[in-house]
Amino acid sequence: MVRALCAEIPPYEAIGTFETEYELHLHEMPDQHPIVHAWEARPGSGERGADGRQAGEFSLDEALYDSFRFNLSRQIVGEVRGREVIAMIKAMESGAGSISTTHAANAGAALRKLVTCAMEAGAHVTHDYATRAIAENIDLVVQLQLETTPLPGGAGRRDRWVSEIVAVTPGEREKGYATTHVFAARQGRCATAGVLPDDYRVLERHGFDLRGFYAESTEAVS
């Protein structure tokens, strides 16, 4: 999904990728992405120093700090499974366009998971900070559904489709953010048009079918 989205990035833009293990491989696609700076985290080994870190450790936070000298147009933090979420938030706060991924059952669960991951980074990350950071820096959550259908002979067919697109804004004191289903999930089929926040009407300049969206949204609620 991220590689598909990155395919729409113009070739003149400089991209930085930050991953615990190389999975995107954008730096190996020079014909499509001629300007890519790829960083990979490195676990430490051996004894720990006075700061508690193992010798040779290189974190995504350090990689992101290094990248600020490169004048990047996009900072893409790969899959977020734990404290990588802090690097993701910093990348989004830097103002460069950013994309990340995580695994969750649905869009709402993805947001809750990211809050939990942020709090696991240490006692200095409070629930209020985590929810505020998520609300202020994540614009959209795109949920990709995977369904595996058994086939004769023990094989399986894997089908993927976009099941939800949720817009995120700061709000609701208890939860820390508010969500709007731009495209809502429907059982067994691709997401259908829901409610488009006013801020996203500008996408029409870039080819978004605004009239078609509103027509489908009307049909969905009628």
What would your notes on this structure say?
- The protein has six helices and nine strands; from the N terminus they run αββββαβαααββββα.
- By secondary structure, the chain is an alpha/beta fold.
- The strands form three sheets. A four-stranded antiparallel sheet has the order 6-7-8-9. A three-stranded parallel sheet has the order 2-1-5.
- Strand 3 and strand 4 form a beta hairpin.
- The longest helix has 13 residues.
- It starts with a helix and ends with a helix.
Biggest pleated sheet: 4 strands, antiparallel
Question: Could you say what the CATH architecture of one domain is?
Answer: 3-Layer(aba) Sandwich
Q: Considering the protein shown, what is the CATH homologous superfamily of one domain?
A: P-loop containing nucleotide triphosphate hydrolases
Whole-number radius of gyration? Answer: 19 Å
Q: How are the strands of the largest sheet arranged?
A: 6-7-8-9
In total, the number of strands is: 9
List the helices and strands and how they pair.
Blueprint lengths: L1 H5 L8 E5 L16 E5 L4 E4 L5 E2 L4 H8 L6 E4 L6 H10 L13 H13 L7 H11 L2 E11 L5 E15 L6 E10 L2 E5 L16 H12 L1
Parallel strand pairs: 1-2, 1-5
Antiparallel strand pairs: 3-4, 6-7, 7-8, 8-9
Key features?
222 residues, alpha/beta, Rossmann fold, 4-stranded antiparallel sheet, 3-stranded parallel sheet, 9 strands, 27% helix
Quick take:
Helices cover 27% and strands 27% of the residues. The chain is of the alpha/beta class.
